[in-house]
Every structure is written in structure tokens, then in C-alpha cells.
Amino acid sequence: MLNSIVKWSIAQRWLVVIASILISVWGFFVLTQMPLDVFPSFAPPQVEIMTEAPGLAPEEVESLVTRPIESVINGTPGLEALRSSSAVGLSAVRATFSWDTEIYRARQLVTERLQQARSQLPQGVEDPEVLPVSSPLGWTVKYAFISETTPLMEVWRIVNWQVKNRLLAVPGVSNIVIFGGDERQYQVLVDPAKLRAFNVSLDDVTKAAQAANANAPGGFLITPDQETLVRGVGRIESIEQLKKSVIKASNGTPVLLEQVADVQIGSALKRGDGSSAGKKAVILTVNKQPTADTPSVTKAAEAAMEELKASLPKDVKVTETFRQEDFIEASIKNVEEALRDGTIIVCVILILFLMNWRTIIITLSAIPVSLVVGNDDPQLDGTRYQHDDFGRISCGDWFGSG
């Protein structure tokens, strides 16, 4: 059998040469189009559900939030494992599906079942949210925003409203996570003594603050030649307007918010912070989609960031603290060096021991052809990417995220 194959190959040598060239061209084309990532896919698709429960202790979150969500998700087609964790004011549930489950179908099934859980959750608990589809090792790029004079509250506002929205528009980006800084809030700090003096309850103050920032529809004013929209504009545009909001009228005299409370702009309660180079900073993390090519997403995000730098305050310094593509480039470089050194060693050995140029050419041409044919794997050509714990294909060496 083997002798027949060898004889046929020798007799049809030009056909073999042409086939080898076509296979090589096709293989190198696939290599150039192949998405790259740090780790291969070795975990099944997963769907993560996060639920905020402000003010609840871990025990209450577990019994009142996590368990109802787990109950409705149990029995989902393709579900293999269900894990959860409950913290102060936060519930996290991770549903793991079988390998043959398509990730978007799994997300659809989970979303449909979560509709049933909403009616079982206590009042004040936010609706469960399915996290965006992202590569589990999705830290593609990280940026640190450090300011010398601009308050971190203003830096956080710029990053959250301008930078985040622009980076979300980059193809391949699935989510933007922001750490550190101070979230801007309109705060109404009530004085109990003043409440008693004006005979005002805390519930009255809460309702007045809510009603002070709302528009109301008023229908239409129809005349013979036109139709005019009528609406009540009540949204506040400054802290002074909020201070002048009326709580109630006492003996014909309005009681204002500023008379019973200290109305100010302050920072929200923080459950963590961010720093860079020993200084407080706003940290922005760019997460990519599972099927996205890491180098392409990285370059597009960096180009968008360069455009944004011109609109930032002059004292705000943007530093790139993490770049996942560096690990991939190092891996590719290691593979290239290994192939180069291996080719040189093979050439030297063949020249010294065989002294035949035809044998040398045949051997050297067989090396790239065998590599190209050996890489004909569905996980390498982008057809079987899954949402797993660590990412997708490896470029030769494995690196941690540091």
C-alpha cells in the first residue's frame, strides 16, 4: 500500500507539487484570518446573572434572591451545572451549559425564565441582569485616568459618559467596566431636628425629592391650523432648583427642601477604589466578545482612545496599564523563533549528511505543509468558539494576566 502511494506520487510529481502549493496558500490564508487569544477553549458556554439587592445581608440575599433565581433556571434545556454566590447586596448566579449549546440560545432561555423570578423577589431588589457576552479572559486593554487638579468625580463623569460610550461602539467590544473615582450624586441630607420643627416626615421629603425631577405629559392643544404638544417640565437642571423644591405648604407657607435638609452634590458610597502608580485613579477595562480577534479589538480601542484624549482636560493623564495583545505577540514571536531555528538546524544536518539539494528542498517544503495541514482544526478557524473561563486559541505559549 505504502509502496503504491510512493510510486504514484513519483509518477505524478507535478500534481503533488501543485497540490502542496494550493494547500500551503490556503493554510496561510486561514492563518491570517484566524482570531487570536491567549488561552484555548476548554470550558463550556456559561451565562452569568447579577442581581443587586441594596441593604440586604448575605443570608438574606441567599434566601430571598439567589434561591428563587436558581429555582426558575433549574431545568433549562442543556443546563449542566448551576453555581452561585451571595454577598452584601449582590447575588451572582452562573449557569453552565453543555458543549453543544449555542451561547445565544442559552442566554435567550435564561432570559425567558428570569421573567418568572421577578415576581418572587422582594420589593427594592433590582431586576436580575444577564451580563454581556464576553471572553472570560476579556481584559483586552486597561486604562488608568489620573488627574492633578480635576476632581476624580469629574473624571469619573467624563469616563462614564464620554469614554465608555465611545469604546462600546468599537467592533468586538462587549462591555466596559469602570473602577475607582467618585460617582456624582445629588444628596439630600435630612436634619431630624428640622423635620420635627416643620412637622415634616422623612417620607414627605423622599416624595418631594422624587417629584422634583420629573416631567409630566399634558396632551395636545388642538387649534384649527396646528397641534401643540403640552407638557409639564419639572426636571431639575441645577442644585439650586432642587433646594427650592416644595415639600408641603404649612398655613399657606411652602416648606422647601433646603429648610429641612442639606442639599448638595456628593460622591456615592464606594465599595472599592482604583489607583495607579500610587495615585488615586479611575480604572477603565475593555472586555471583548468571545469570537473577536484580540489584536484587532486592541488596535481599534487604542485608536478610539487616541481620538478621545483631545477632548479630555489637559491635566488628565491616560496610561495604558494592561495590554493582552503583548502576551500574544510574545507567543507568536517565540513560535517564529522556534521555526526559524528548527529550519536552520534541519538545513545544516541535511547538508552535512546528505549533500543532496533535492532532498533538502523536499524536506524543507514538507515542514510548512505539515504544519498547515496539522492546524486544520475547527477550534483554530473560528467555527467553534465557546464562552468559557479563560478564552480561546493559544499562540504557542501560555501566559497569565499578571
Overall description:
This protein has 402 residues and is of the alpha+beta class. The chain folds into four domains: 2-39 and 327-374, no CATH class; 46-130, Multidrug efflux transporter AcrB pore domain (Alpha-Beta Plaits); 139-183 and 272-323, Alpha-Beta Plaits (2-Layer Sandwich); 186-267, Multidrug efflux transporter AcrB TolC docking domain, DN and DC subdomains, CATH 3.30.2090. Helices cover 42% and strands 24% of the residues. The strands form six sheets. A four-stranded antiparallel sheet has the order 2-3-1-4. A four-stranded antiparallel sheet has the order 6-15-5-16. The protein has a two-stranded antiparallel ribbon with strand order 7-12.
List the helices and strands and how they pair.
Blueprint: H1 2-11, H2 13-33, E1 46-52, H3 58-73, E2 79-87, E3 90-97, H4 103-118, E4 129-130, E5 139-147, H5 152-168, E6 173-179, E7 184-190, H6 192-198, H7 202-211, E8 216-222, E9 227-232, H8 239-243, E10 246-250, E11 253-256, H9 257-260, E12 261-267, E13 275-276, E14 279-280, E15 282-288, H10 294-309, E16 316-323, H11 325-353, H12 357-374
Antiparallel strand pairs: 1-3, 1-4, 2-3, 5-15, 5-16, 6-15, 7-12, 8-9, 10-11, 13-14
List keywords for this structure.
elongated; alpha+beta; four-stranded antiparallel beta sheet; Alpha-Beta Plaits
* Biggest sheet layout: 4 strands, antiparallel
What is the H/E order? HHEHEEHEEHEEHHEEHEEHEEEEHEHH
**How many structural domains are formed by the residues?**
4
Tell me the β content.
15-25%
Structure class: alpha+beta
